[in-house]
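Chapter review: from sequence to fold.
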Amino acid sequence: MPALLLTAHDCIGHVHLIIGSNSIANARCAKSIEVGAKPIVIAPPDAEIHYALKDKIDAGHLDWRKAGFQDNDLTTLGRDEVDNVVDAVFVTLGGKDSMGGCLLLGDLPASARLIKNPVVRTHISSLCRRLRVPINVLDSPNLCTFSLPSTHSDGPLQIGITTSGKGCKLATRIRREIASLLPPDFGSAVERLGTIRRRIWEEDHRCHQALEDSAVVAENEDDDLPAQKPTFNQLISESDLTAAKTRRIRWLSQICEYWPLRRLASITDADIDTILKSYTTTPSSPSPSSTSITATPPLDIPTLDLRTRPQPRIILA
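The C-alpha cell string follows.
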C-alpha cells in the first residue's frame, strides 16, 4: 500500500457534514469547531443524541438537521462560494449502530426508505467520491478518502501520527510517547521563533537586504524539505554581500536545526529583542561595511541552559 499524503487544511468557514449522533459524532463536531469549521449533524428527530453533542446543539455551536440523509444534502448545505457543495463528510454510523441512519431514496414509500447502515455508508461514500467531496467513514478504511491522524496540539505546533488504518490505539500510544519527549509548553517557543523569523524578514525587506530567490528563505518555507542544501553551513566572509544579506535568517535556521529543544524552549520575549538588536543595518548604505555584527553570540547559551536545569530540592522525611 502506498504511503498516505499528510496535509494540513485551513478549514475556517468550511461546512462539515456529520452523519450520526453518537459519541464519535460528538468528537468529530468538536474537532470541526476547533478548526473553525461549521458542523451540521444529520440525524432523525427520534435519534438518541449524545449528551455532549446535545450541549453543543443547545449552545448554538452547530446545526442539527432533523432528518435522515438525502443525496442532495451534499450539494445544498455547503457554502455559496463553492456552489453549496459541502467541504467534508464524516459518517459515524457503525455497522451495528441502532440509531437509524435513514437513507431517503427519491419518492419511495417510508417502509422502503430504511436501509441498513452498511449500505448507507457505502452509498454515501460512492456519492462523495463522484462529487470529489472528502469523506471519512468510521471503521471502514476502504470507504474513506481521508483519515484523521492522532494529533498533539500545542499552539502553532501540531504533530500527527497515523498507522494508515492498521491500529488507532497504537497511533495514540505513539503520539503520547512523542509528546512526552517535548519540553513543556513548547508551542510557545515555536510561536516566539516564528516571531523572530517574521521580524527578521520584515526588517531585512525594509532595508532592501532580502533576496527574492534566497535559498535560505526557501529552506524555511517548507516543513517537509528532504535535506539541507550544501550552502547551509557555508562560511560567510565579510566581503560576501549576498550572503551577508541573509545572515540573520541563516543564523535562525541553524539554531533551529542544531540547538536542543529544551534550549529553544527557554527563549523568552526579551531574548527576541536581544537577537534583533545584535545585528544592525544601515539601509542608506547597502555595503558590507554597513553591516555590524556583535562579536559575541546574540544569546548567552549557558544562561539559556541554566533556565532549563532542574532546580535542587530538599525533601524532609
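Two observations follow directly from the output. The mean pLDDT is 79. The first helix runs from residue 23 to 34.
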